[in-house]
Design brief:
The chain contains seven helices and seven strands; from the N terminus they run E-H-E-H-E-H-H-E-H-E-H-E-E-H. By secondary structure, it is an alpha/beta fold. The protein has one domain: Rossmann fold, CATH 3.40.50.170. It has a seven-stranded mixed beta sheet with strand order 3-2-1-4-5-6-7, with helices on one face. Strand 2, helix 2 and strand 3 form a beta-alpha-beta unit. Helix 1 runs parallel beside helix 7 and helix 6 crosses helix 7. The longest helix is centred in the C-terminal third of the chain and has 24 residues.
Length: about 190
């Protein structure tokens, strides 16, 4: 059975969907939730679902090998970013080559990069008068949102949509497709 670590910074709705998706699947389980904000709601979701957690700070991630050592001790096979807002350092990418993926709430390369997350992305889509948006699931490299694209899914944007309604549409895509893509990666 493969072991997944989910990294999150916020509410953790994608983390919860991933955890529950794999609960009854023999291919993998979420063995660890790594989070970087002590008050992140993802902690409550992980506790409710009996998944071990690890709170990290910037020194743990950037200045030491603490995170890498913890992931290796847990025998993690795949790292899944689910709303994790820190740039992944080169040493972690090197320790887990082609084993770190991310989901972005837009059709990259549009509306990606540092500072483009959450409602900021959906506001940018609205201001650009785009008629569609979606999700991009990609491998992680040293640049925000610039790794090789694995899959994109689209949804229509109407004139009546607001950044909030766009966010709701995109989140439905995230919850539907992210677990499936994770499973397909693990089957390779």
């Amino acid at each position: 059975m493969k072991r997944i670590a989910v990294f999150a910074s916020g509410s953790g709705s994608n983390a919860e969907k991933i955890i529950t998706y794999f609960q009854d699947k023999p291919i993998a389980d979420v063995s660890l939730v790594v989070y970087n904000k002590p008050d992140a709601f993802v902690l409550e979701r992980a506790k409710k679902l009996s998944v071990p957690t690890l709170l990290i700070n910037k020194d743990d991630l950037y200045e030491s090998d603490e995170v890498i050592n913890q992931l290796k001790d847990q025998q993690i096979d795949l790292i899944v970013l689910a709303g994790f807002l820190w740039l992944i350092p080169k040493k972690l990418i090197k320790a887990f080559p082609e084993k770190i993926i991310n989901i972005h709430p837009a059709l990259l390369p549009r509306f990606g990069g540092k500072g483009m997350y959450g409602l900021r992305v959906h506001q940018a889509v609205k201001e650009a008068n785009d008629t569609e948006t979606g999700i991009t699931i990609h491998y992680v490299n040293e640049v925000y949102d610039a790794g090789t694209i694995i899959r994109q899914e689209r949804v229509a944007v109407s004139e009546e949509d607001t950044p909030t309604t766009i966010a709701q549409k995109v989140q439905q895509l995230e919850h539907q497709y992210y677990p499936e893509v994770i499973e397909s990666i693990l089957q390779k």
